[in-house]
């Protein structure tokens, strides 16, 4: 049985931040494990509204259906987010 998640933006930000505090998280992981379809907007909010220093880099990986894609990988760093760093 599938776990039900709160779909509010605040709940999604909280789940994503909690996951990032444990280690890096890809877009695919956030969508499938945390039930966050709009990962980029939640990352934007965590960076620009709350100051979390989240870096993104591209990795090549497979989606659950087996297709190969460039996938965003997010990592939480210490300090405040600064545009362009």
Entry keywords:
alpha+beta; 85 residues; single chain; 3 helices; 31% strand; 3-stranded antiparallel beta sheet; 3 strands; 36% helix; Arc Repressor Mutant, subunit A; globular
* Tally of alpha and pi helices: 3
Sheet/helix structural class:
alpha+beta
Strand content: 25-35%
Total domain modules: 1
- Please provide the ordered H/E string of secondary-structure elements: HEHHEE
- Number of E strands: 3
Order of adjacent strands in the largest pleated sheet = 1-3-2
Cα Rg: 13 Å
For the largest beta-sheet, the strand count, sense and barrel status come to: 3 strands, antiparallel
The shape is globular
* Poorly predicted parts: none
The CATH topology turns out to be Arc Repressor Mutant, subunit A
Termini, distance in Å? 42 Å
Please bin the fraction of helical residues: 25-40%
Per CATH, the class reads: Mainly Alpha
Give the name of the CATH architecture. Orthogonal Bundle
Task: Look at the structure and give the mean pLDDT.
Answer: 92
């Amino acid at each position: 049985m599938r776990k039900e998640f709160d779909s509010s933006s605040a709940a999604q930000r909280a789940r994503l931040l909690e996951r990032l505090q444990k280690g890096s998280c890809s877009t695919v992981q956030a969508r499938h494990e945390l039930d966050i379809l709009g990962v980029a907007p939640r990352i934007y909010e965590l960076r620009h509204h709350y100051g979390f220093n989240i870096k993104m880099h591209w990795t090549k990986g497979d989606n659950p259906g087996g297709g190969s894609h460039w996938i965003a990988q997010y990592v939480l760093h210490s300090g405040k987010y600064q545009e362009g760093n």
